[in-house]
Amino acid sequence: MTDPRILVIGDSYMKAEIFAPAFEQRGLSFDAATVTIAPPTSDTSVIAEFEGDPAEIAQIARGYDVIAFHAAPITADVLAALPDLKLLGCARGGPVNVDLAAAKERGVRVTTTPGKNAEAVADLTIGFLISMIRNVPASLRDVDKRVADGRPLAESTFEGARWFGREISSLRVGLVGYGNVARLVAARALALGAQVLAFDPYVDASTVDDVTVVSDLDEMLAQSDVVSLHARATAENRHMIGAREIGLMRPGSFLINTARESLVDEQAMLDALTSGNLAGIALDVNEPDGPWRDLVAQPNLILTPHLAGATQETLVRGAEMLASEIQAYIDDKPLRWER
What are the tens digits of pLDDT across the range 155-177? Predict the structure, then answer.
């Protein structure tokens, strides 16, 4: 295949220069541009979580065969304006900023980078777990209050008696979903001595030998000291963890959600914290809904702004995955992560 014209489009999250080392290492010649943060001037109802104006993308990408990007909006109008386009490489696991139906209709291939952030998300999940079982959130809030009141940070050497926690080796960790992230969480938890259960209706239990795969979500919830969510969000599993499911969990257990906020009913979480049924909740979310002001006020809550995958290694891994896909395309080989 004749070398294609390649354009790399950077954004505020994944800058164009992040792509350069992986592309240069493979001898891939490319041009680079950066999307301007501006409100869209055309229809973007089919896409989500994008940055920039589709009209700008249509202009800067004209004449290119391949576009590598992260957050640029690729709408039907953009695709219609780019008749030379053959391949879109989106550095995300789910290309929600791409109109996949329009791309397919025009014969434009789309490839992605699934699992690029799995290591990062697994690390944060274990960090959440340790913080919760050792009462770090509540104790830090107590320290903040002491500082504000001008009191000593510890009244005596026995201060720790207020914060008795658990050790990982005493825990049974239940994973909802057993994909890329959950498998890495399981490996970390097992290495620290925990028992691990997993529920995933799409996984054949006979293919898994490192954890106990259970066929019933209710059973797993009832047996776990810590439940961690790793399912992909769909319309069908919205609030899959609600009041009924939380009620099945052991009193004093913990809930972690580093997946998507829609998987859990926010009011049910608040009720479980205030009643004491749950001893702690850790969330990494980006679209809060429901009683968030009251939820954030709870001392045993950890809340981060969707930063689980935000590491330098994640960005580099995404660039390397796209570079390998583009090289495979040039060599007329199958694309590993084509949608």
Answer: 667 777 788 999 999 999 999 99
Number of domains in the chain: 2
Q: Domain check: are 272 and 317 in the same one?
A: no
Q: Is 335 a domain residue?
A: no
Cα separation, 100 vs 94, in Å, equals 11
pLDDT of residue 53 exceeding 90: yes
Non-local CB neighbours of 50 within 8 Å, separated by 6+ positions: 44, 71, 72, 73, 96, 97
Catalytic pick from 5, 106, 306, 339? 306
Q: Which residue has the tokens 């274990």?
A: 126
In the chain, the N- to C-terminal Cα span, in Å, equals 22
Give domain status of residue 106, yes or no.
yes
Residue in 192, 188, 191, 186 with CA at minimum distance from that of residue 167? 192
DSSP state for residue 160 in the 8-state scheme: G
Is 105 annotated in the active site?
no
Please, what is the Cα angle at 33 between 62 and 15, to 5 degrees? 140
What residue numbers bound the domain in which 21 lies? 6-114+312-330
What pLDDT shows up at residue 287? 63
- Catalytic option among 260, 261, 320, 325: 260
User: Is residue 43 one of the residues assigned to a domain?
Assistant: yes
Tokens matching residue 128: 């959440």
Q: Could you confirm whether 239 is annotated as catalytic?
A: no
pTM listed for this prediction? 0.91
DSSP 229: E
One domain for residues 46 and 190 = no
Known catalytic residue: 219?
Answer: no
Higher pLDDT, residue 260 or 74: 74
